[in-house]
Design a protein that fits this description.
oxidoreductase, Naphthalene 1,2-dioxygenase Alpha Subunit, Chain A, domain 1, 2 iron, 2 sulfur cluster binding, 2Fe-2S, seven-stranded antiparallel beta sheet, about 800 residues, Rng_hydr_dOase-A, iron ion binding, 20 helices
Length: about 800
């Protein structure tokens, strides 16, 4: 029976600490193909490279012949000027290392040169180089190169030249040989050099590319070099052909990487015959990384313990000195007091007293103690000195960095002159300073709200026959609804179970009873069952039933409103309580399954989704609210989105937490749904769908003037963008400038009840995560995984914990405190 190995976990394709470990364990200790010597025909020719953020260059320093010797070529580190290891093969290929940690060339590639002897690379003149960046991890690209299953589905032109029937991969130490056609041993030489270089000889030419990771694990730079015997039109034809293949791979990687980052797909299955190249290189990466981590673990722990001890004790005093305006005499006493280890047991009392009433800028702020559910009990302080300092620093920094008090504070006592005292008592805002702009807050919203709440998606009238489907993306989760042959509407994550490519990838709406993945040809029916898996079906032990699409809980109300819940856990509450209110609203306003979709549109903008949520929800105990107040479309939309004038409405609307509202017009059977769809922390769009009756649509296709609503939405989005831009400026995010959203600001510009409901759900989920000691991802499907997968996933978690609760700005590599330490 064939043994099916699993891929590396999705966390390995998006972790910054893991890439930093890969850089030390893999990239600094490897050799890299730099190209044929035909690129260095002239003395002083200098070619620059950047591999794993190490800059180097190759320079020909001497010689009189056309082709340089190994002594005439030098590989130099750009910043240090040091000469790096290099090796020139007898057939004219130059290899180099990026550090002195690289082993001997023949130790790294013991059986490579005899294979390279089959091609004379000195005959291929250099023609062109290109480079560009893609939104994918470096391993995502190598995954695709190291297997041959996808060629006939992704590269139809290449498959004509090299039929996939014969394509296979042979693995050697630190390189893999791809055999495209045994009848063309020289013209079809395809080599992968671990960890990130390739060599492709076919069609009379040669191309090589380097898969270069950047500081961001989700961005990779691709560097291509092209060599060919021909020039002019013949080379351009070859170049067009190979570029088409490269761009097809590029699109595959970006689409697959998107799903690897969504928090749904965990791992995939690997074909033990056709994906041996993937198995080999993933095992190689895993072994080197885990060994490096094992060797470095004692040193890293000791270093972190020392640094944390110094930082915590120093920061406790420093923060108190700089953040709170106290009399110098008292601060001097407090600093002295903190420096005495015998008094550590009294620190919590002092800190709590300071935090309870803080004096700053002429105001006294009364701060609630241990307000957040994540606070650590006082008895935790008795464990050891280090934990005391860490807890005190964390608690104190939370209070110092927390939102400033609102301006709606109570006036201070009046002096004898009749003037108010400069001392005011103000209530601290519950909302964190990065409520609108924080990436960490947005990621928490994905986990705490959009992964666990029943979300309105569409009306059943959008589906008229089996196979009708509509694809959506909600807060970064790709999904689609499809009508089955049994008439039932089902929802699925838009993720192929094999290698994470989207199943619906071309048209967002259409009709098909079979959905085929364009990566490897896996196909599914309308129930999500796997019905076709090329090259897997013939393997003993492969079970199609274990590889169905991930289905999403779906509820359709009596009159056709479709709700989904992305939570994959077993204890998901049903929509029953809210359905009663929804049914009542539908009955009262003639919304029915016979409604027909008239028109719809999406308007995208650069703003945070919470800025558009107003009065969607008044009752915190339920997810829907029916409003009964006489209003026109202008005032109703204003109550929800701040919209301007438009057509008149019935005195009814339905708010479905967190982002949807439904409005009924005065015209019989005509209604709208408007949803705010978050995509990123600072990018959202509004989706509007208008429904009516069959008779009304036939009599008047427009029935109303949706352009009025669309233009109002666009206008309002511009206002949101302006407001968000001002919130995102550096001066507004500086804590010293008091940029935090106060309760008064929330109440005045947005619906306080809705914002507080969002906040309460974030707090509740964050409390569960603190107890669990890790992020809780409700959408992730748990499965029986391999021991290697579990070890790999645990390594990622451990590395994240070693780095600590931080947020990294990848461009500037700046590190800030965790904004979720509320």
């Amino acid at each position: 029976m064939a043994e099916f190995q699993r891929t590396l976990p999705a966390s390995w394709y998006r972790s910054l600490p893991l890439y930093q470990l890969e850089r030390r364990a893999v990239f600094l200790k490897a050799w890299y193909l730099l190209g044929p010597v035909t690129r260095f025909n002239e003395v002083d020719t200098k070619v620059q490279y950047e591999i794993a953020q190490e800059r180097l260059y190759v320079q020909r320093q001497s010689g009189t012949s056309t082709l340089p010797t190994s002594e005439e070529l030098k590989v130099i580190h750009e910043s240090t000027g040091a000469e790096l290891p290099s090796h020139l093969t007898p057939t004219g290929l130059l290899f180099g290392g990026i550090s002195q940690d690289a082993p001997d060339f023949y130790e790294f590639y013991p059986d490579l040169e005899h294979l390279l002897a089959r091609v004379d690379f000195t005959r291929l003149p250099y023609r062109r180089s290109i480079k560009y960046e893609g939104n994918f991890n470096w391993k995502t690209m190598v995954d695709g190169y190291q297997e041959c299953l996808h060629c006939q589905y992704t590269h139809p032109s290449f498959s004509i030249y090299y039929p996939p029937t014969f394509y296979t991969v042979y693995n050697h130490l630190n390189f893999s040989q791809h055999i495209a056609d045994p009848k063309k041993p020289d013209d079809g030489l395809f080599l992968y050099f671990f960890p990130n270089c390739t060599l492709n000889v076919y069609g009379g030419g040669m191309s090589s590319f380097r898969v270069c990771p950047t500081g961001d694990p989700n961005i990779t730079r691709m560097e291509f070099d092209y060599y060919h015997l021909e020039s002019g039109n013949k080379f351009e034809e070859y170049f067009k052909f190979v570029r088409q293949v490269a761009m097809e791979d590029y699109e595959l990687c970006e689409r697959a990487q998107e799903n690897l980052q969504k928090g749904v797909y965990n791992e995939g299955i690997l074909n033990p015959v056709k994906e041996t190249g993937v198995v080999y290189y993933q095992n190689r990466v895993f072994d080197l990384v885990t060994e490096q981590h094992r060797l470095a673990k004692p040193t890293e722990r000791l270093k972190k313990a020392v640094e944390d001890g110094m930082d915590n004790s120093a920061q406790s005093v420093e923060v108190i000195s700089h953040r709170i305006t106290c009399e110098p005499r008292r601060m001097e006493y407090l600093s002295s007091f903190l420096s005495n280890t015998y008094a550590l047991g009294s620190i919590p009392i002092i800190i709590l007293a300071i935090l309870a009433v803080a004096h700053k800028d002429g105001k006294i702020f009364r701060r609630p103690l241990l307000r957040w559910p994540t606070a650590i009990p006082l008895d935790t302080l008795s464990s050891n000195v280090q934990s005391k300092l860490t807890w005190i620093e964390d608690l104190f920094l939370r209070r110092v960095a927390s939102p400033v008090a609102t301006s709606a504070g109570m006036r201070g006592p009046t002096t004898e002159t009749g003037q108010s005292s400069s001392i005011n008592v103000c209530k601290e805002s519950d909302f964190p300073e990065n409520w609108w702009t924080g990436d960490e807050v947005f990621r928490l919203e994905r986990r705490a709200i959009f992964s666990k709440t029943w979300l309105y998606t569409a009306h059943i009238s959008r589906f008229t026959k089996p196979g009708d489907y509509h694809a959506f993306e909600i807060c970064g989760f790709p999904l689609f609804l499809i009508q089955g042959k049994d008439g039932i509407i089902r929802a699925f994550h838009n993720v192929c179970r094999h290698r994470a490519y989207p199943v619906i990838s071309r048209k967002k709406s259409g009709s098909s009873t079979v959905m085929g993945c364009r990566y490897h040809g896996w196909s599914y029916d309308t129930r999500g069952h796997l019905i076709k898996a090329p090259q897997f079906e013939c393997l003993e032990g492969f079970d199609k039933t274990q590889n169905s699409l991930f289905e999403i809980r779906t509820t359709v109300t009596k009159h056709g409103l479709i709700f989904v819940n992305l939570d994959a856990r077993d204890d998901v509450p049903e929509l029953k309580r809210d359905v009663r209110g929804i049914d009542k609203f539908e009955n009262a306003n003639h919304i029915s399954r016979q409604s027909v979709w008239i028109d719809g549109w999406e308007v995208e903008g650069r703003f945070n989704w919470k800025m558009a949520v107003r009065n969607l929800h008044g009752d915190k105990s339920t997810a829907t609210e029916v409003k009964h107040e006489s209003s026109n479309l202008s005032s109703l939309l204003q109550s929800i989105f701040g919209m301007g004038r438009a057509e008149r409405l019935r005195p009814s609307s339905l708010g479905a937490f967190p982002t949807t509202s439904i409005h009924v017009t005065e015209k019989e059977g005509v209604w709208y749904s408007i949803s705010i769809v978050p995509m990123e922390v600072g990018r959202s769009y509004m989706r509007c769908d208008m429904y009516g009756t069959v008779a009304g649509k036939q009599a008047d296709g427009g029935q109303m003037t949706p352009e009025n609503i669309k233009s109002n939405l666009e206008s309002r989005i511009l206002e949101f963008e302006t407001a968000y831009k001002s919130l995102s400026t550096p001066e507004r995010t500086n804590l010293d400038k008091q940029s935090s959203p106060t309760e008064e600001q929330i109440s005045c510009s947005h619906d306080n009840a809705a914002q507080e409901l969002i906040l309460s759900q974030l707090k509740s989920h964050l409390k569960l995560e603190r107890v669990a000691g890790e992020e809780i991802l409700p959408t992730v499907r748990r499965s029986n995984t391999s021991d290697r997968y579990k070890l790999a996933n645990e390594l990622c978690k451990e590395l994240e914990n070693l780095v600590g609760p931080i947020s990294s700005s990848l461009a500037g590599q700046t590190v800030v405190k965790d904004s979720l330490a509320w």
